[in-house]
């Protein structure tokens, strides 16, 4: 796992590198600028026009060092756009050096409108060194204009440490740089892994600007980024058979949404479940029972649930399931709650009814997460994943997991695995082909099959997510874009690959 830390932690490391390790600030800046340039220069063409946005702080100083290394490598079609009334001592030194180099410069704060609007004409790359991780709120208006203009440019954008105006406590709805590449320093930042902000960081590259390892190790971890691309499951014993591999009960399917539960049922078999029973409504019984001879289909009429090892509730379930959900919870069996199951649970919670339960995994997408927040913490619901801050986004997921004593698998372009008392784990699949109808039903089927055998919510949530991601990669490699039925055919391979 890779650490995700709050920006204040890295700022503290920067200060201690100077005060404790006795490394001069200019040495840290020089190392940072050199490493950023080395990671970036392979992207450059000899005739590229480079525009550097240089604030008055150390982030701007880093940008000036990068500009100097580019100049030393022969780049001459360059412009430094400087701004800021308060200039840090290290940044002042770098401004003096680039002035001696006679690199063309424009002062944004005093420039006329004509010069401002012509800044990015023919620019190939814009290097963002406006503000770093110390920003506590939105940019001032004049810098917002500069950022908007940079974002509208056809140029590629490189962010130094973090895209300007993305920060732990800055609303993600604020105007900020949209980068194609971010070279970040010390540790990766929590603020970059909000669903909104992650898309604005582009490819993230981590470098160390000479921070001592003993200081980096002191950083408090706020979340973890999963570096694995493969899941890890224990091998099935040679004497396993259908009963020992787990019997899964799936409650789902309705006249309006008959396909979701069938997708989950088929996926459960591909994820090593030995037996799958689907409980559906009478009006879809014939359709469901004809779908797959391997799935046992029943209409639930109060039967005992004792023979099952885990339950999945929600895929295509429809409305009005609150009473049945309370019955399922009362069984104390391990449960995966998806889709309409989450909506039914949110309805119970809103009425202050929170039934006790056994091991529980919830798989909300962002809209369903908002329903849970609205039911539990209505004062925080409006802005979730829209105009909240990265720090508050992570905190609200942790509050929900703790309050419900449940593991969350929150689905967006990233996946967040959140368990009570544990570090949140971010899984970055980078596979938009998984964003297809029914993909969540497939994930739910994977999770309930694993839960029936492993009985550990945190382990199941992470390994099941990785299997889902791997199946998506395999399917995309074979077919490009696909539907969820095609995805299921690769879940078995991804599951088998995970066996260790």
What do you see in this structure?
This protein is α/β, with parallel strands linked by helices and about 500 residues long. It contains 17 helices and 19 strands. The strands form two sheets. A twelve-stranded mixed beta sheet has the order 8-1-10-19-18-17-16-15-14-11-12-13, with helices on both faces. A seven-stranded parallel beta sheet has the order 4-3-2-5-6-7-9, with helices on one face. Helix 15 packs across helix 16 (about 455-480) and helix 16 (about 455-480) crosses helix 17. The two termini are about 20 Å apart. The model has no long low-confidence stretch (mean pLDDT about 95).
SSE order and pairing:
Blueprint: E1 2-5, H1 7-19, H2 25-40, E2 50-54, H3 58-72, E3 78-82, H4 89-101, E4 105-107, H5 113-117, E5 125-129, H6 141-152, E6 156-160, E7 181-185, E8 188-189, H7 195-198, E9 203-207, H8 213-216, E10 223-225, E11 247-251, H9 259-270, E12 275-279, H10 285-289, E13 296-298, E14 310-313, H11 322-330, E15 335-337, H12 340-350, E16 360-362, H13 366-376, H14 390-404, E17 407-411, E18 415-418, E19 425-427, H15 439-454, H16 457-479, H17 484-498
Parallel strand pairs: 1-8, 2-3, 2-5, 3-4, 5-6, 6-7, 7-9, 10-19, 11-12, 11-14, 12-13, 14-15, 15-16, 16-17
Antiparallel strand pairs: 1-10, 17-18, 18-19
Helix pairs in contact: 2-3, 3-4, 9-15, 9-17, 12-13, 15-16, 16-17
